[in-house]
Amino acid sequence: MERVLVTGIEPFDGDLINPSWQVAQALAGERITGAEVVVCQLACVLGLSNQQLMSAIDRVRPKAVICLGLAGGRAEISVERVAVNLIDARIPDNAGNQPIDIPIVDGGPVGYFSTLPVKAIVHHLRQRGIPAGVSQTAGTYN
Known about the structure:
CATH class: Alpha Beta
Strand content: 15-25%
CATH architecture: 3-Layer(aba) Sandwich
Oligomer: single chain
Low-confidence stretches: none
Mean pLDDT: 93
Strand order of the largest sheet: 2-3-1-4
Structural class: alpha/beta
Radius of gyration: 15 Å
CATH topology: Aminopeptidase
């Protein structure tokens, strides 16, 4: 059976909930073009979240991975086009870490482009009355 892995993040910065995890949980067990949605909550601890994601990918062996996050203050869903290979933490993570200008993958490319149909996703969300837009980068707080 094909699967899609959807991740959300645990609450951080004093918040009691993180909507990214609530959305992921709501999708658990659903089907996307015939593939079952499997969800995983990632820690808001720099480095650990990457390890958790890679372990979930190894365990689930998904056809696609969709990572949800929280960008407080945005008025619409931002569908990210590029993941920047850099951590430049504006605030400490849940373990108190606050790295500045550290690559996520040493020796890796500057960024990683999404292989999802970003513009089509935004179009479908807007058709359903959900505010959405293309964001060129997810930023630097991994």
